[in-house]
Specification:
232 residues; 11 strands; Rossmann fold; five-stranded antiparallel beta sheet; 7 helices; six-stranded mixed beta sheet; 33% helix; alpha/beta; globular
Length: 232
């Protein structure tokens, strides 16, 4: 339809080199990701996949013609801008990275308070919303060690959604999960992508996931990342 808005680019890299320490791990990366897209980043261990994720949140240095996330110019990013950049981005890790001495609810409250939320009723309401979105309202008062691996990862996804990010970065989110649980996490990520319009960039080496949940694929090898196109 003519009145439908074309999704705007939310990530733009042009001829970008990404470093890890003094080592250049990705060379001449050109990539555009639009609002609401789903993109896999794949490749062997050490191919620079996670370095792309770290560059997007301002951790790994980069250089090139253009590197933009939302309104943030990563080539000229100031240290004081990094917390605001990261509010645009939700991050999900392979190993969950929950605070083990706090309940699910308190893990989420900690993040909201750390990012400037003050109103207790708004905090409670937002926690309820994200727990409902990931199907964990009945686990709010459980400690992380009382949860299954899939429930811990759902908690981590809820945490990533708290500040309504425009981009969700998922670094091997199914890597520590059995096949059935991995499928439930993939279903959740696809649902978030479809319902919320959140762009998802997911690092994975799981070829079955790439087959069962097809989307754009960026494959990294020998410091070069290229988009993988399948023949129809």
């Amino acid at each position: 339809m003519e009145n439908e808005k074309t999704p705007q680019p939310i990530i733009e890299f042009e001829d970008v080199d990404i470093s890890n320490g003094e080592l250049t791990v990705i060379e001449s990366l050109t990539l555009t990701v639009r609002e609401g897209e789903f993109l896999y980043i794949t490749g062997k261990v050490g191919s620079g996949k996670t370095s792309i994720i770290r560059a997007l949140i301002g951790e790994n240095p980069l250089s090139g013609k253009l590197a933009r996330v939302g309104e943030f110019d990563l080539l000229h990013l100031r240290k004081r801008q990094i917390p605001y950049l990261r509010r645009e981005i939700g991050i999900v890790f392979q190993d969950f990275q929950l605070l083990m001495d706090r309940s699910v609810e308190d893990n989420l409250r900690f993040v909201l308070e750390a990012t400037g939320w003050r109103d207790k009723e708004q905090i409670r309401s937002r926690i309820d919303e994200v727990l409902r979105a990931v199907g964990l309202t009945h686990k709010a008062h459980k400690m992380p060690h009382q949860l299954s691996g899939g429930e811990q990862q759902r908690t981590a996804i809820a945490r990533a959604l708290l500040n309504r990010p425009r981009i969700l970065l998922a670094d091997e989110p199914t890597g520590n999960l059995d096949a059935d649980t991995a499928h439930s996490i993939m279903d959740l990520l696809w649902s978030i992508n479809a319902k919320e319009g959140t762009a998802v960039l997911m690092v994975t080496h799981n070829q079955s996931i790439l087959s069962e949940y097809p989307a754009r694929v960026l494959i990294c090898e020998d410091t070069v990342c290229r988009e993988l196109f399948h023949e129809e």
